[in-house]
């Protein structure tokens, strides 16, 4: 038995349980209402995330557009565009700069961390 792997999985599950237990139902209700507005208006949901949290927005954007029929953009999916913004403007503002171009009134941004 690989005890390092077992310890890792135990810690991972513990962190996941803690995160789920800390979800605020009132905040979740607000988020759901905002997403429903986007669905009703055919606006766009923009997904962002940095580092290891860049993969989850990509998966979410695909699932949400497929299952909910909502237009989505994942701003981490275009590596050339992402790195051009970072290189030519600033990495600190890489998502803000993209959103300044693509975000329209009524759209929402979901960020993963």
Short recap of the structure:
This protein has helices spanning 3-21, 25-41, 55-68, 79-88, 94-102, and strands spanning 45-49, 72-74, 108-112. By secondary structure, the protein is mainly α.
Task: Tell me what you see in this structure.
The chain has 113 residues and is mostly helical. It has five helices and three strands. A three-stranded parallel β-sheet has the order 2-1-3, with helices on one face. α4 (79-88) packs across α5 (94-102). The relative contact order is 0.16. The model has no long low-confidence stretch (mean pLDDT 93).
List its traits.
3 strands, mainly alpha, three-stranded parallel β-sheet, 113 residues
Strand and helix map with partners:
Layout: H1 3-21, H2 25-41, E1 45-49, H3 55-68, E2 72-74, H4 79-88, H5 94-102, E3 108-112
Parallel strand pairs: 1-2, 1-3
Please state how the strands of the largest beta sheet are arranged side by side. Answer: 2-1-3
Uncertain segments are none
Residues in helices, as a percent range: 55-70%
Q: pLDDT average, as an integer? A: 93
Radius of gyration: 17 Å
Largest sheet: 3 strands, parallel
The number of distinct β-strands equals 3
Please give the alpha-carbon distance between the first and last residues.
32 Å
Based on Cα principal axes, name the global outline: globular
| Amount of beta strand | 5-15%
Which class of secondary structure composition applies to the elements?
mainly alpha
Element order: H for helix, E for strand = HHEHEHHE
Number of H- or I-type helical stretches? 5
């Amino acid at each position: 038995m690989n005890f390092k792997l077992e310890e890792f999985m135990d810690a991972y599950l513990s962190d996941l349980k803690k995160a789920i237990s800390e979800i605020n139902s009132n905040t979740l209700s607000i988020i759901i209402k905002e997403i429903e507005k986007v669905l009703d208006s055919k606006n766009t949901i923009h997904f962002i995330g940095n580092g290891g949290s860049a993969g989850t927005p990509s998966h979410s954007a695909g699932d949400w557009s497929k299952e909910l029929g909502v237009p989505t953009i994942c701003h981490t999916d275009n590596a050339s565009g992402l790195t051009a913004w970072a290189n030519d403007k600033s990495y600190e503002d890489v998502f803000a700069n993209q959103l300044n171009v693509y975000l329209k009134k009524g759209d929402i941004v979901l960020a993963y961390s």
